[in-house]
Amino acid sequence: MRFNLFRQLDGAESGGTAATSPLLAPPHAAHQEPTGPIKIQTRDVSVFYGDKQALFDVSVDIPDKAVTAFIGPSGCGKSSFLRCLNRMNDTIPIARVKGSIRMDGEDIYDKALDPVLLRARVGMVFQKPNPFPKSIFENVAYGPRIHGLTENKTELADRVEQSLKRAGLWAEVADRLDAAATGLSGGQQQRLVIARAIAVEPEVILMDEPCSALDPIATAKIEELMDELREEYCLVIVTHSMAQAARVSQRTAFFHMGELVEFDDTETIFQNPRDKRTLDYITGRFG
Amino acid sequence: MLLIYLLVLAVFSTAVFVLARRAARRRATVVKAHSAAGYHGAWALIWAAVPALIILILASTFDARIERTVLIASAPEAVQALDAPRRAAFIEDARIVGAGGMPRQIWTGDLSTALQEEAARASRVDGALAWGGLIAAILAALIGAGLAWRQTRPEFRARNRVEAFVSVALFACSAVAILTTIGIVASLVFESLRFFQTVPITEFLFGTQWSPQIAIRADQVGSTGAFGAVPLFVGTFLIMVIAMLVAGPIGLFSAIYLAEYAGPKRRAVIKPVLEILAGVPTVVYGFFAALTVGPSFRAFFNWIGAQLVGGPLDGLGQHLLLVQNQMALVAGAVMGIMLIPFVSSLSDDIINAVPQSLRDGSYAMGATRSETIKRVVLPAALPGIAGAFLLAVSRAIGETMIVTMAAGLAARTTLNPLDTVTTVTVQIVTLLTGDQEFDSAKTLAAFGLGLTLFVVTLILNFAAQRIVQTYREQYD
Ligand SMILES: Nc1ncnc2c1ncn2[C@@H]1O[C@H](COP(=O)(O)OP(=O)(O)OP(=O)(O)O)[C@@H](O)[C@H]1O
Ligand SMILES: [Mg+2]
């Protein structure tokens, strides 16, 4: 079943003009497709920065082979929660995380677990593309090199090529792999960073507003890419674009003031939100 | 005296300022004034103070000179007959006596009586000059104030005038700085050219003999002097390399520790301490090198030498000490310690300028902290760090005090760190301290060395700044 945010909302308010917004059409009508089993399970996760609590008791089940979107007004704790999932909060000295987070049933905050190994399994893409000041090739080869994933040069070159292909960047950079990565356009840089994350073959890819610095065409490319990656990975994205969440995600979580207000199928969130705050947010009445 | 004049002038011009401001306010009630009253006041103040100030300064700078010229021109026969230096000394004594002091020399016969007359005349001329200057200054202040006062009309554009004056004054200040520098460089170049007329520049740059002491009598040893500066360059280079071997790694590693490992608390302690170290006067490092490090290094290396090779024995049956207090290693090591805070504080700034997003990107790939530093942070910071090192090198070769106290004077072309060597700066110091004739090749050689040093440090600083600059732009 295809759904449309505005039709539903319009229907609620003005009695139903059935205009279909092309913006909100999912690229591959992704939403009916079944999601995989639960990949990450969080229970009562709270985040503190010093004495200030930024996140309150968040419990979600994030499915594998699907895109899960976090939405909510600025400062509501989306990034903080996302950073819990690969323990990037460990790099912030004043941050503390409480509660339990299990990935494939394994507690990722277990004392015995090395966060460095966890981060090899949970890749992350940031809001602003952050390629290293090295060549395009070296950027993608970075992960395989530090984790010793390849035996020799040809294997490494193969893996770089595969990753760039999966990130949809190969055609554009195949002839200039030795050029500086910082010379690419913003959209290309963001896909390069995704290729860099893919190159270590993670199980989960976290993306924190990956398109907010990009133009609509580059955004469309990244969204297409997310939709493809969904077939193999567990994707979690933070976005400020309602339309983007509706287009690419299967599950959506709405955060407000550090609390998880609602977590459900994307369809349900946008068509039948249970909470008034969710409705207000997705219709643009606050936030 | 001058101080009192200045004080009076300050009070007067302040009064002018207040009055002009009041007048401007009063006159502006009918027509709307172009400028705020304060600008009219400031304009009047400028006119009251600046011309008078210039006259006072000129008068106090030149009055002694004018007085001398007047006195010499009208001196009696007996004085005119003296040769120039004696005459100058006589006039000087006349002025001293005229001011109520004791003459420095004993003048006999005609000169003795002439001295009394001249002294009386000197004190008259002195008085006239002082009064003349004062009256001129007072007149200038009054006329200036009067002129400005008449301009205190509502339509007068006092603000634009005052702003133009301020900008001219500011420009004059920066011009003074630039002109002085140009003057210094010009004299350096000029005197060096004179030096290179006596000693060919090729001999200076490539000659390997340095013995600038020219004997007074032609039959003594070393009557000609040799000005081949290669030993000095080698010595400077050797000490610089030793200093950088100490300061480079230690400075860089402490910068890495500060920027990447130390928490905010430790950083808050260590950073200021390093900055205090950077403020230790180099002369303190100098005597630290000469009195502490030098003797202990000598003892240590002589002991090693004795263990290793035995070596000749002296009259008391002890090993002859082959290593002296003054050696390149001591000067270089202490200079390196001096440079540590310099290198670490610059490198720390540069490492901190590497965007946090790059570190996050690396951590998110599952890299450890040391991998992140080694593979992302340092490569990203490398150009900037290279610039910091170049600045440190330029300081090392220009450093004077430590090498003067700890390196020695023997101009030897050696790369042995345990040898005594000398540097460009040390030689400049020895060439110019003590009694000198300004024209001798020996004195002029200092200018040649100074110019060489200047050119090298200029190039280094320029390169370093360019590197650091482009590095900054990369991340802005
Ligand atoms: N490093 C930090 N130190 C202190 N407080 C922080 C830090 N990072 C986030 N916070 C605080 O935690 C709260 C949640 O921030 P977070 O970045 O998770 O919000 P967000 O939902 O991602 O917002 P945005 O949409 O603007 O990115 C905010 O109040 C913020 O001030
Ligand atoms: Mg955020």
Folded structure, characterized:
The complex is a heterodimer of chains A (287) and B (476). Chain A has 287 residues and is an alpha/beta fold. Chain A has one domain (2-282): P-loop containing nucleotide triphosphate hydrolases (Rossmann fold, 3-Layer(aba) Sandwich). Chain A contains 11 helices and 11 strands. Chain A has helices at residues 5-14, 78-85, 115-121, 136-147, 153-166, 170-173, 186-198, 216-229, 242-248, 266-271, 276-282, and strands spanning 38-49, 52-58, 61-63, 66-71, 95-103, 106-107, 122-125, 204-208, 234-238, 251-256, 259-265. Chain A has a 6-stranded mixed beta sheet with strand order 7-8-9-4-10-11, sandwiched between helices. In chain A, strands 1, 2, 3, 5 and 6 form a 5-stranded antiparallel beta sheet that branches. The two termini of chain A are 29 Å apart. Chain B has 2 domains: 2-156, no CATH class; 210-471, Orthogonal Bundle (MetI-like fold), CATH 1.10.3720. In chain B, helix 15 packs antiparallel against helix 16 (441-474). The two termini of chain B are 56 Å apart. The model of chain B has no long low-confidence stretch (mean pLDDT 84). The interface between A and B is medium-sized, with 28 and 21 residues. The complex binds adenosine-5'-triphosphate and magnesium ion (MG). Adenosine-5'-triphosphate is lined by residues 49, 54, 72, 74-80, 92, 94 of chain A.
